[in-house]
């Protein structure tokens, strides 16, 4: 059939051009993971959390401090000795200098330092899950945009096919007019239809171009880079509801975040309870001291030596704040448990709803595939009838529009099936590119 041959030619031409600059969905995702700014910012947040996981930040290591001080003054001094002798000096100098090293180490604080260290590690886990969630969102957005381009590009090809058909209709109408079998009005109507198709193509090409700009933005690269995309939207029709529910419990980042927050609430309670116990701190240091005085019994002195000791403190009464802090920490644990139950219900509801939509879209994709095939056959038959003059130009235009609409619905149905699949995989926290 001639129409089939025309469409096959377009597909072949597009395939050749794509081979020169094809961007696969995997390449789009990999480029986004490497360049996207939100992902980089989330990676930096994780690096900060990793840097904070140290024994020193938890207060488990000693602190070493270097000290230096010097004081100088000039005074007009008068002294009366025990013997009654009076001594006076103008601008008497009094100088002192102290320097040394001091070391302090908290060796016991009710095990609070260990709780703080565990909290720092949980903060690192939070950063890891936040990064995972950011990556999931960006990957989902990139894949959605990519396959939307595929859908709109396929529609653009269908419009190109329609334009070729409209041009052939115009040639046929002009031939029929030249031999007196058609009126000038029919030729003008066909010309209007062709102009309408070309106008539709311009708008559709603009849609595709803008989508490509959006995808370039998601990949954080030059917005003007041209590329071609794959020819078809492939979707996974093998997802099972029970398996999705189980995977969500293991991989969903929101559930993981809440579980980590509950663990942190438990650690916070331990840290608060540590204040009931005494805090023991070791102190030591080595100091140098020099003094100089122009008037007095001692004109100059030097000293150096080691000092050491231990300090211990315990909270006896703080206005019942200790008890209040412990109660608040316990309430936070209860809230974390409620949030886990709430989030489980929310996620299960989202999966069940998305899965129902997914099944509906799969059925629509199968139905629209059949409709497209029927519309294509109808267009071929109608074109042949139009050539021999057995149907009017209006009837042929209806068949032509039905074909474009069928192609559009089929592409939309495939895209919606893919987006439904993608939504389910994003909810469970495990998007694959297979």
Describe this structure in words.
By secondary structure, the chain is of the alpha+beta class. The chain has a domain at 2-35 and 110-181 and 210-278 and 317-428: Outer membrane efflux proteins (OEP), CATH 1.20.1600.10. Helix content is 65%, strand content 16%. It has helices spanning 2-21, 25-35, 37-52, 112-178, 184-218, 241-251, 253-273, 321-387, 393-428; strands at 63-80, 86-108, 279-293, 300-313. A hairpin with a 5-residue loop joins strand 1 and strand 2 (86-108). Helix 3 packs antiparallel against helix 4 (112-178) and helix 6 (241-251) crosses helix 9 (393-428). 24% of the residues are buried.
Write the element-wise H/E pattern from the N-terminal end onward: HHHEEHHHHEEHH
Q: Determine the number of helices (DSSP H or I, runs of at least 4 residues).
A: 9
CATH topology of the domain at 2-35 and 110-181 and 210-278 and 317-428: Outer membrane efflux proteins (OEP)
Strand content: 15-25%
Using the CA coordinates, give the radius of gyration.
40 Å
- Poorly predicted ranges (pLDDT <50, ≥5 residues)? 1-20
By CATH's scheme, which homologous superfamily of the domain at 2-35 and 110-181 and 210-278 and 317-428 applies?
Outer membrane efflux proteins (OEP)
Mean pLDDT over the full residue set: 88
Architecture of the domain at 2-35 and 110-181 and 210-278 and 317-428, CATH level 2? Up-down Bundle
In which order are the strands of the major sheet placed?
1-2-3-4
Shape verdict: elongated
Instruction: Please report the total strand number as a whole number.
Output: 4
What does the main sheet amount to? 4 strands, antiparallel
